[in-house]
Amino acid sequence: MLLILATNNQNKLREIREMLSDTALNVCGQREAGIDLAVEENGTTFAENAAIKAQAIFDLQSAKKQNCYVLADDSGLCVDALDGAPGVYSHRFAGEDATDAQRCEKLLSLMKAVPRAQRGAHFACAMCLIAPDGTQYAVEGRVDGCIGYAPHGENGFGYDPVFEINGRSFAEFTAEEKNAVSHRKRALEQVVALLMQQSL
Fold this sequence. Notes:
This protein is of the alpha/beta class. It has five helices and seven strands, in the order βαβαβαββββαα.
C-alpha cells in the first residue's frame, strides 16, 4: 500500500522512511507522488498543522481516485524558559529563509543568560494519518532534554546541535540512536500500531 508523506522536507522523509522500513508500506514524499504543493501551515498547534497538511494532500489524491494513506508530521522545539517558543514557529523562528545554523544561533542568543537548571526543553511531534476511506487519526510524541550552550555534532538537522540529552546533543547521536528515542519515533510507533490494526 502506498503511503504519501505530506512534506517537502527531505530530512523528515529520510527519517520516517527508515523507521517504516520493516513495514509493507511503499513510503514516498509528495514530490515523488507528483504533488507540487506548499500548504499554508496556519494552525496554532502542531496537531492542527499536521491535519491541515495531511488533508490537503489527501484531497488531491482523492480527486485523482488514488487509493493511498497520507501521513503528515508537524514538529518543533519547545523551550521552557521561552514559554514554549519557538514551538509551531520553529522553522520560521529566525526568518523564512534562515538556515538551521541561524535558527540555533538565535535560540542560543536568547538563552545566553539562562542557567542550566532552567534550560529544559522538549521536541514535540504531532502526526496525522488519513486512511484511504478518509478516516483521520491523530497521535503525538515528545522527547525531553535541555538546551546546551553551543552547537555540537555534525549529524541531524534543525535544532539537533543545541538540544541535549544526558550531555550529548542530538547532532552527536547516530541516526540509529536518534531514531530509537526521538519525538518522531514515538509518534510513528503509534502510527504503525494503527496501521497494523488495518492489517498492513
